[in-house]
């Protein structure tokens, strides 16, 4: 399992040779360290929380790639494709267990509180993934349902990451809760941008196939917003996607690039792209506003704001 995990993190290639492949953006551990500094304690206090949230995040990636049938992550084959589905499941489970083990060994008197927050976030993350899968086979999903799903699937763990270092640093509940609110809305902004990249992102930057979310029939925010709009583009998109739900996965995978391009163009014409861009900005504003409600060092507030800036302008 160490070999499989090392491949997933980009430390070795498929043949077991040392590799310098990317291990992701590390937003969650960065949040955990900043959260400790927001509480006025050294960043090192947040390290157990940083490691724990990153392990849980990667547990979810291993399982999600298998459930979604994704063959590429970070510009190379996913774990299940290289090492098989069984290994992907087992290593994901092991990372999840290790996250909780490390957190409870943190040495902080509030390690139990931090572990509880991580457990709640993990449960919500799983809820969100279940909702996401269920939406793929439904003809209609509301924007409210989509935001709830994304708040669980992405927002919950970012909310935990943004508060867990402060909890380990024995911060009061007002600070921890404000940081959690920041992380929750940052997560929604992050996912909105992710949804945009999932349709219109450059494969050279995202490491995924073009039109990746459309290929998987995901009811992401741009799609749901477009389907709920008025006008001929929304009507044509609804007709196409209603028919798509009745096709087998094999039939759907046989589509050519032009068919996915048509769906992407209709989502944009119906306003789904513009609505999602505006929603990402709105969630960003709410996240940053939460930082102003509690005292913390100005430098830390500026760095948390800069991290939020990165989330809404990223290209991968």
Search tags:
single chain, 316 residues, mainly alpha, Farnesyl Diphosphate Synthase, two-stranded antiparallel sheet, 16 helices, 2 strands, 72% helix, Polyprenyl synthetase family protein, magnesium
How is this fold's topology laid out?
Blueprint: H1 2-8, H2 27-38, H3 47-68, E1 72-73, E2 76-77, H4 79-83, H5 85-104, H6 111-135, H7 143-168, H8 173-200, H9 203-206, H10 212-215, H11 221-227, H12 232-245, H13 249-253, H14 257-269, H15 272-291, H16 298-313
Antiparallel strand pairs: 1-2
Helix pairs in contact: 2-3, 2-7, 2-16, 3-5, 3-6, 3-7, 6-7, 7-8, 8-15, 8-16, 11-14, 11-15, 12-14, 15-16
Task: Report on this structure.
- It is globular and about 55 Å long.
- It has 16 helices and 2 strands.
- 45% of the residues are buried.
- A hairpin with a 2-residue loop joins strand 1 and strand 2.
- With 316 residues, the protein is mainly alpha-helical.
- A two-stranded antiparallel ribbon has the order 1-2.
- Helix 15 packs antiparallel against helix 16.
- It has a single domain, classed as Farnesyl Diphosphate Synthase (Orthogonal Bundle).
Proper CATH architecture? Orthogonal Bundle
CATH class: Mainly Alpha
Number of strands: 2
Looking at CATH, which topology would you report?
Farnesyl Diphosphate Synthase
Protein name: Polyprenyl synthetase family protein
Family: Belongs to the FPP/GGPP synthase family.
GO molecular function: metal ion binding; prenyltransferase activity
InterPro entries: Isoprenoid_synthase_dom_sf (IPR008949), Polyprenyl_synt (IPR000092), Polyprenyl_synt_CS (IPR033749)
